[in-house]
Amino acid sequence: MADPQPRRLWRVILVISLAVNVAVLGAVGGLMLRSSGEKGPPRGFDVGLGPIGRALDQEDRRAIGRAVRDASGRDASRAADAARFDALVAALRSDPWSEADLDAALNAPVELNARMRDTALTVLKNRLQEMTLQDRLRIADRMLDDRKSRGRR
Questions:
Q1: pTM surpassing 0.70?
Q2: Using one digit for the tens of pLDDT, what is the confidence trace for 91-114?
Q3: Is 121 exposed, middle or buried (0-12, 13-18, 19+ CB in 10 A)?
Q4: What is the rounded CA–CA span in Å between residue 17 and residue 89?
């Protein structure tokens, strides 16, 4: 009589193999779906426009995002980001302590964010002025729908 243990072992191995294959296919499929047809705002795009920013269509959000990047030099600012980081580390390590250096290091990103927000608001206002009443009504309706879906009154 044959021992049933090897059969059971092979069955377990096959089930585990199937589970791993399904997990890999799911991960690849998820990445493909995520990269195609983005519905939300561009990654990293939030300059404090709040509900109206969420209500804009993708084209308007992208245009605002491009204007902010162009005006702030964000695409070519890795060196500037590194310099701000280094300045903060240097201020923390300074001896003697320099509150002015710390203030400057802490305020640099705040000032950059304020400039980016100002640019976004200017572009938003310009785009809203170019829109028809119907376009603006659709945005207002989306804002109300967003508020309802978030459970706010």
A1: no
A2: 899 999 888 988 888 888 888 788
A3: middle
A4: 49
